[in-house]
Amino acid sequence: MISRWTVVVDRGNLAETEVLHDELPSGSDLSDCEVLLRVSRVGLTANNVTYGVIGDVLGYWNFFPAGGSGQGVVPVWGFADVVDSTVDALPTGTRVYGYLPMASHFVARARLTSSGFVDTADHRAELPAVYNSYLVTSSDPAYDANSEDLQVLYRPLFLTSFLLADQLVDNDFHGARTVVISSASSKTAFGTAQCLRGQGVRLVGLTSPRNVEFTKGLGLYDTVLPYDAAVDVEPSVYLDFSGSADVRSALHSRLGAELKKDVSIGLTHKTPSQDSRSEFFFAPDQLRKRTADWGSDGLAQRFGEAWRGFTAQAAGWVAVVQHHGPDELVEVWQAVLAGKANPDTADVISF
Ligand SMILES: NC(=O)c1ccc[n+]([C@@H]2O[C@H](COP(=O)([O-])OP(=O)(O)OC[C@H]3O[C@@H](n4cnc5c(N)ncnc54)[C@H](OP(=O)(O)O)[C@@H]3O)[C@@H](O)[C@H]2O)c1
């Protein structure tokens, strides 16, 4: 028997955590098409907190069901290794990248694809396909064994940055020539800024007073302002990563009709609110559109180019801090949840 740990959180109070221990099924208990994966290395950022904040609304608790009622397992992105398998093409030792539980192990029901497999477990059937796909590292052209840290931290975020920036370009910035970005110090926000540089728009970053210096230091925004400063009145698009109702209202009051588009992407301030003035960015829509426009290969080639440009700089902006084991994972979770994490460091946890 292999013992497994799982970090669960109280769905009503994400700061309440528990590390559960149980025994795993042995290889002979795996059903046809099942593989047992051991989680190896994951990243943890505000994006994972958002999975918890809107877990009930968007179904994020359903990926890795937790035992206790009212508890949930927060998904993280990272690498895992096959440690037992009923699938010949996925032998023990196969390393994959994808959506993982905060746990030492999990079982997937694998349907093979050209790049890896899809987990077809019943409880995941209704969930967005992008989260159910696992890439086998040995056949992933973007994989680089020396930059796993950058991949676990940035790859899920930068795809959104790339598609969001592309959607703006695709729509000629809705007639605006300034893009105002909140939570400008967040990785997804500054990844978007990096994609938008050189596209003929002025980039204005809004951030907390304590993060102004870091955000200026990125060199990606033309102007960086604390949240309470007034932006210039000019035709603008707002990209909201903070979810702050106050920041949104202040911008609408100041810009009026000059605010050409208000796009909601994130919730770093952890207060979900709906506002009919804002349009939710749904990355899979732009992904589908560009797959049709450019073909899968054309999209992969463009994304790959942008990704390489981004990762070449990312290590200089943010230092990676290494952690080990479930207890340190919980410590990082508490720090990120409380907003105590500094934007100039990013957390990777290995097991
Ligand atoms: N829709 C999508 O497809 C999609 C995809 C990826 C990410 N996102 C969203 O984008 C947002 C950024 O994610 P990320 O992983 O890039 O973040 P990150 O790098 O971990 O962001 C850290 C920044 O978020 C703000 N922040 C973090 N915790 C906070 C707290 N407790 N209270 C107030 N502010 C806090 C601070 O920025 P400031 O001081 O600058 O406000 C902080 O510097 C998340 O809400 C995420 O869910 C959405």
TrEMBL record:
InterPro entries: DUF2855
Protein name (record): NADPH-dependent curcumin reductase CurA
High-level lineage: Bacteria, Bacillati, Actinomycetota, Actinomycetes, Pseudonocardiales
